[in-house]
Amino acid sequence: MQNPYKMWNGPGDMTNTLPPLPPKRSNRIGFHYFPDTLHYRESDLHTWLPRLQSLGAGWIVLQSQGSHAIPEAFITALTAAGIEPIVHFPLSLHEKTDPTDLSPLLTAYARWGVRTVIFYDRPNTRASWPAAAWAQGDLVETFLDRFIPLAEQAQSCGLTPVFPPLTPGGDYWDLAFLRLSLESLQRRQRKALLSALALSAYAWAGNRPLNWGAGGPERWPQAHAYASSKTPDQRGFRIFDWYLAVHQAVTEKAAPIFLLQAGLSAAPTDGEPAAAQHTRIHLALARLAARETPTEPGDSQTPLEPLPDEVAACCFWLLSADAASPLDAYAWFPQNRPALPAAAALQTWQSRRQPAPAPAPRSQSQRKDLPEGEAPPPMQHPIQHYLLLPTYEWGVADWQLNALQPLIKKFRPTVGFSLAEAALAARVTVLSDPQSIPEEALDRLRQTGSRVDRIAPDGTSIATFLAER
């Protein structure tokens, strides 16, 4: 097999012409929504849209079934708030999907404002395939026989098809899989598809520095498939440098690329993230996506190399998950625990960069026709009850975790650390002393129309508060 790394002829071969969709956006920070299709209700929108805004999200990865559409109201509310949906169809490779079955969904998504769709997930992994199909020698061709009809159907609907994310390294070496796929598309004369196709990649950081493998195969020509040496390769956050080099070598054109699960220390389900390191990595990546110049986490002397313009979005895993899900450990906003410290860190950083986000738009059922020239009434608070906690440099205090249980069981509030997010709640309960969250901050919350109650952080005060309510 040809060395999959020998595919880059130097920067003189790069072209700056990108496919017309998606357009270049200044905001490249994104999130993966729930890892299922069960949280697209209006109540979910009222809960999660304010949080996405407080995090400064410009992109959101949504899971879609092949048989049922994500509700129109959910998608249009996101796009109205300036958040671009990326719809992912994690279709099974154990059976073929007829593109005509997806045509109504794709047409509807395009009409509602979706512009980017991903088909399949990790086709270079043995577990994704039936045993007989994996054993055949033409796995890439078999995959393209399934992918091309769907991608061309999406293209005919005005959507940008995205080549699915591969497992970094993987059972079938990802760089070889990508290269052979692009070469086959050329051989099959799929010029229109190639010109519109975007890429995606699982930008897992692993236990390596974020600059690991930066510069791609041009800088690291000694890298080899499945090598166990310490030579940097694509198996790190900078995986996009390698995928873009593959695409450039085959097509002689640039392509946008979407980074998924960016910054994870390991593949999901491989282990819970360490909170402190998780915060440092994701804040550094958010700053990198915002075209700032952060340094390597844990190494203040080494600046991170900038992201190229081809990186369209840098999406973090995972906004939330059901409490019973094994992915709950990765949720930035768990259902029954305080938010990960990374959430508060990102919200604080965003609040210093830009004005507070506009309130989430009301649904059609909440709107009423107004006489011409009359201003609409004040926006209703989209969050019913918010439990505001202080943050500390070392993370979440143990007393907070112990005190939260009876409050959550009785009131089922939204739990977080953000004053901007709390301002979107009709009722705010503050579990903090005035030194950690000053009274001036609570006065600002009251000015937004929120009802604010403070509880002193001791057992007696909490018990009294619960008894009185």
Walk me through the structure.
It is a single chain. This protein has 469 residues and is an alpha/beta fold. The protein folds into two domains: 11-353, Glycosidases (TIM Barrel, Alpha-Beta Barrel), CATH 3.20.20; 381-468, Nitrogenase molybdenum iron protein domain (Rossmann fold). 34% of the residues lie in helices and 14% in strands. It has 15 helices and 14 strands. The strands form three sheets. An eight-stranded parallel beta sheet has the order 5-4-3-2-1-10-7-6. It has a four-stranded parallel beta sheet with strand order 12-11-13-14, with helices on both faces. Helix 14 links the parallel strand 13 (425-431) and strand 14. The protein starts with 28 loop residues before the first strand and ends with a helix.
Please supply descriptive tags for the structure shown above.
Rossmann fold, 469 residues, four-stranded parallel sheet, TIM Barrel
Structural class: alpha/beta
The gross shape turns out to be: globular
Q: Can you tell me the CATH topology of the largest domain? A: TIM Barrel
**Approximately how much beta-strand content do the residues carry?**
5-15%
Binned, the helix content reads 25-40%
What is the tally of beta strands? 14
The CATH first-level class of the largest domain comes to Alpha Beta
Oligomer: single chain
Region (Disordered): 344-381
